[in-house]
Structure of PNPLA domain-containing protein:
Amino acid sequence: MAAEHLSRFVNLSDPSAEGYPTDIGRFGGPVAGSVPDPVRYPVKDGGTVELPCFEIGLVLAGAVSAGAYSAGVLDYLWEALDDWEAAKEADAWEHGDAFEKWRVPPHALRIRVVAGASAGSVCSALIAVAAQRRFLPVRATEANVGGPDANRADNPFYDLWVNRLDIRGMLETGDIGADTSFMTLRSLLNSGVVRAAADSVLAAAPGTPDGRAFPKLRRYVADPLPVALSVANLNGVPFRYRFEGLEGARFATIRHADVMRFLVHADTKPQPEAERPGGFRIVEGVPTSDPAQNPNALQWVALANAALASGAFPVAFAPIELRKSADDYRFDLRIRGDTEVADGSKWAQPATLCAGFSTVDGSIDHQFDTADGGTMNNQPFQYARSILTGPLGELDGNGPTARKAMVIIDPFPADEKEQPAGMDIPPRAPLGVVGAAAKLLRAWINQARYDANDLALAADGDTYSRFMLSPLRGRRTPDGGRGTTALGQAAIASGAMGGFSGFLSRGYRHHDFLLGRRNAENFLRNYFALPEENSLFHQGWWDAQTDAAKAQHLTLTAEAGSPGERLIVPPLRAMEVRPMVATDRRRTLENEDQRKAFVREALLELSPLWPGEAQPRFNPDSLVHLIEGRAEALADVAVKSFAPKLPKLLRLLARRWVANRLGAPSANGLREALKAHGLFDPYA
């Protein structure tokens, strides 16, 4: 679909080069008012019909175990887009460009780019896989965790995040051998379960639940699809920038915030290497690790490795070694400045990689260890934006003309009530070593999450180029009524213990997955909309709509947004819940804040059962023997490394002492943390 555009690319790290395009709108410079390419659908008498398109860049923030929430959002998005696509294919085939006869809105959406950090990188890689897979959604009718359809192994979003990423596998000791020393120990938890989960996704058989052909190619996913995954490069990349001053003066710096870029080709063929955009690796064919199914299977393995590297939480999970060509870094070397080039944009003098890092032709590979990408860049907005607009472009947020946007999925948005780090109220005790270290860690994490421009625009209701989706859950009261609304971290079961609580219980992850689906439905129905005068909408179709036609699907106007806004993606399939409160009452609320509050209140009927209400509840005591076993193995490694001559009996006693100190006390600590988060409270 987008392959024809790639042949026009030159070396984008050098805008002054001959042939640098002035109107490319994809990987190059800014294009004012650029409109995405239309999407074509076949008609029965031959030829195609073109539909106007709205392009989005999906940005998936770091989430630890709350990746289950993001996965649920994606599962519902896939279902809604699949339903809409099937209806458009049927309408196009039958009615062609007689849009007044169509049953559904005749426009299209394209996921143009995906960018992720940490758990968001894992979800980003799953998007590339799911783009070609047929699978069934996990709906609310499967709310029983032990139900016959709840395992849903064919669904890559659900299978990886709900079925496989569990603490029990992470506490196994198979990764600790007799020769493991303190210096060679890779992580406190067993990372093998994470690797096995990734392998299971790529090893999935190409058979499909509906028996139809594999793979399924989806028009709403760009082909090729750029995927950008943020990683923490523990080695660092040395750069030098030239400044005016002493002859030969250079400013040198080392950058640790790195990115792995991929171009995922489902049906299109990659362009020759010289014509590809810089810094991108090719991933081609069906998603599998089996060379018998795809001779380019190792490319998919490389994408999986990068996703795992981005999600490797420091110390808890093992770092992963990655490799990039030194030439890949030239894609990022320029910064804004005063040197005007052919397309009229201004750049600084190019940076150079320090001597010894690469050869003149950039042929040396850079091999480096990694850690969680969220520690350096937890919300990688700029990677998505640079694909949508070019490296210096800006998104058009004007309602009547907006045709591209970033959609941010963040399970842990900043709490406006949270006090910023360092804003302690006097009097306070002098800051000690431990306190300083704790504050430094918190400041480090907060800074990695900070991008004021994009966050402000996402929160601006008049900006149609940024949309944000984060957890929202209605609470119940003891008498069965509606309680308050939980937002962000408080709304999800994975929100305790710094985001790790989801690993403790499949029920927690299942809840968050279903909540993600519910929130996605609410987002599409209420907030993901544009003003009616936007050229995306075919006015003739809207004028021809009757009540009977509208009854075939959900309302096409935003229920909580401003009057006159139309939905970009109409959710055609009603959720398996009681009807929401009559829309007539909702529309009598003229105040925008009242309308939004009303819709949030109605969301109570859409929330899955909170784990605090479920019986039986998760019991932390069930993990005691696993915690003790892991603690014993780690203690043995420490004793062998630091006291190798300790008698066998004393070594055994040391192991048991550590196990006893960590087993039951850890379970008690878990219980208190879960209670504090409301996971033992039906009304939390």
Q: What stands out?
A: The chain has 17 helices and 18 strands.
